Amino acid sequence: MKKLLATFILLSCFIVASAVEVGKTYRISPQGDLSKSLFIKNSFRDASVDIMLWEETDVPSQQWTLLEGADGTYVLQNVYSKLYAAPRTKKKGGTLYTHRVASYGRIALEAVDEASGIYHILPIARDLYLSSSTGEDGILPFWDEKDEASRNQLWVFQEVEPKTAFTAVMRDEMVDNYLKAYCKPKGSGMRTFSKGGWGESEQLEVLLDAYESTGNEAYLNNARYVYSYFKNQVGDNWNHLVYTDDYKWYGHDFNDDVMWQIIAVARLGWLTGTKSYTTAAKNNFDKIYERAYIPFTGLMRWAESSGDAYGTNSCIAGPTEVAACYLGMSGCGEEYFEKARDLYAAQRYTLTNNMATGKVWDSVVWDPSTKTVKSKNEWASTYNQGTMLGAACLLYEHYGDEQYLKDAKKLMDFTKKNLCTSYGFINVCQDESNGDLCGFKGILMRYVRRFVLDMNQPDYQEWLMRNALLAYCNRSANGLTGTGWLTKATDASTTNPFGCSTAVSAAVNVPLWDVVKNGFDTLQAERFDYHRGLLTSEEEGCGQGAVAQVSNGSWAQYDNVDFGEQTVRSMSLDITAPVNNATGTVEVYFDKMEGTPAGVFELKELDEGITWHSLLADVIPTTGLHRVYLRFTCTTSRSKAYRVDSFRFFVQNADEVRTGISAPSLTTQHVPLPTDKLYNLMGMRLPQSSLRGTVALKRGRSSRVIIK
Q1: CATH topology of domain 517-657
Q2: What is the per-residue DSSP string for 10-53?
Q3: Which terminal CB of the chain, N or C, has fewer other CB atoms within 10 Å?
Q4: Paired sense of beta strands 555-562 and 517-518, if any
Q5: From CA 609, how far away is CA 440, in angstroms rounded?
Q6: Phi, psi of 35 (to 5 degrees)
Q7: Which CATH code, of 2.80.10.50, 3.40.50.720, 3.90.650.10, 1.10.3540.10, is assigned to 2-159?
């Protein structure tokens, strides 16, 4: 009752104090129950889907844009599905459903109180009234004869801002609601989701996904706290059993459980540069590899006690490959890449039939006497498809072998065709109570992100976006979505933190910016694709945000920066002065962060009294599509040595760009000096101290006001 009262008060604050207008978007609620609004069942995109009343959760499938119909009528178009609300029948008792043709959805609106946005909704015959009844979520509104005394025939149109695409705000809501519900404190500096099990490891990975894609310090801290509790309960060696009320860990038996934790901690080390995490992951990888590797198969044993001693599953093969790659990436040695490569080749041969279709089989059992496979399970799952996809991406990154790219495409094509609906929504593992399976999808989403960015596959960005937006639309009143995101979530269906983590993984693994970036646009530093040790923040004077923590050795990676056929010769960088008169550099690399930098910015003698400096440096001339790295150094040990806002490339060399700063303006407009960032016509940011004079400027990132 308290929740309903709070919802009523909240929604009442949004009631439009004016008549409805064509082109505006509304949530539409019965006055008899303002806590609910018109909603497309399960947020389906199909036609002929029921329109029902559901508790308002501020999602696109509960938003309706008012369009003009013929002869003084109106049409309601759903923001999410783009379909129209139409009567199933215009007879008494008829309900509403979605239709592809606008003319089928024509309605009339009869004003009751325009100032409060209250209307009757009628079919075009104008002889019946859309009515509602109070009760549980899912009740269908229906056509009925007019009842002057009924508040359930009064519909309140509350204007809202349409949510037409998945956004960073939605992503952050998904993460923050999840952490609030499930990330529980366990003493100082410790957190837990599930008090153990491999699901805890995967929820730790979701936190790392969130930090990797956003740079949000809170997500990194929570990841550290979850690992701290694991270490507190399990210790440094993870290959043993822990079975207490506080924690349960099955490292004595299940090699895959340990390997999932190794991946998470190896990633924690890779993302932060903290050697203790990498060392812990390496030590335990070595133990499990020695314990579980079956030489004549080239693969890993799934479990030490459960199942067959000569059984191998993709759920141990793929994670071992991924873990080995992360250890190799963290400087543990080339031999870890070699282990990953050899395991991948064996899995490819044995568990995918040489990647014939892109289907990854679940498991095989070997006959040790003949050294041949005696049985197999060809079931495919999202987490096996996902980890082999991840291994293909990471091995392609290291070796550059085109076979890994071809394999990755086959893996994704099979997944989309066989484990998804015709709209591309994942339709497997929908049961929240179904043990391990409820957490599988989140693993797939993680590695599809790598596939999109590392292998330049922008078509699958839209696929990720579709799943993330559906999961958001079907969230419950408490802001959570379960693993069955094809169905509208309820409080009762979102009690399993592992299952709910899959929707969060979908949210944080969507690349929200262009996969292929125009190298001559101003590129925002905080829109990195990968990074090590960075934080982001919203700060005055930097518009959309900035990289706020830049410490010695941290770096940012920007995939698929396209210069086309033009030759890049220089670059600008918007940056603050290092604190306490420290010095440093920003090194620019193309494609690989090794060898001689393509360009270097020297951070010295920068006035700390000026907030933002726009520096210029020449870079090695280059054309085409490249990955760009910014590597940061500083002589101070402070973690927040300086901040970086944006950067941009030029076809001119640095001296020619500097010359352009003093070029006279052909057309000028006298306007008050702006308080935000100022640029010259070449796109270089100018410090406030340079405003005096006759330089031509443009204001902000979007507008083009010229000032003299």
Answers
A1: Jelly Rolls (2.60.120)
A2: HHHTT--SS---TT-EEEEEETT-TTEEEEEGGG--SSS-BEEE
A3: N
A4: parallel
A5: 52
A6: -75, -15
A7: 2.80.10.50
Q: Given this chain, do its domains 2-159 and 176-420+447-459 carry the same CATH topology?
A: no
Q: Domain residues of the chain, as ranges? A: 2-159, 176-420+447-459, 517-657
Model pLDDT, residue 666: 32
pLDDT in tens, 92-147: 999 999 999 999 999 999 999 999 999 999 998 878 999 998 789 999 999 999 99
- Candidates 393, 504, 381, 512; CA nearest to 447 is 393
- DSSP letter at 551? -
109 Rama class: left (phi>0) / alpha (psi -120 to 50) / beta? beta
Identify the pLDDT of residue 678. 58
Tell me which DSSP letter residue 151 carries. Answer: G
Cβ contacts of 319 within 8 Å, gap of 6 or more: 256, 259, 260, 262, 263, 387
pLDDT digits (tens, 9 = 90+) for 519-561: 999 999 999 999 999 999 875 544 468 898 788 889 999 999 9
CATH class of 176-420+447-459: mainly alpha
CA distances from 532 to 182, 215, 271 (A): 27, 9, 5
> Residue 599 contacts by C-beta under 8 Å, 6 or more apart in sequence?
570, 571, 587, 588, 617, 618, 619, 620
Please name the residue that has the structure tokens 């008169």: 581
- Residue tagged 């340079």 (tokens): 690
Distance CA 307, CA 134 (A): 53
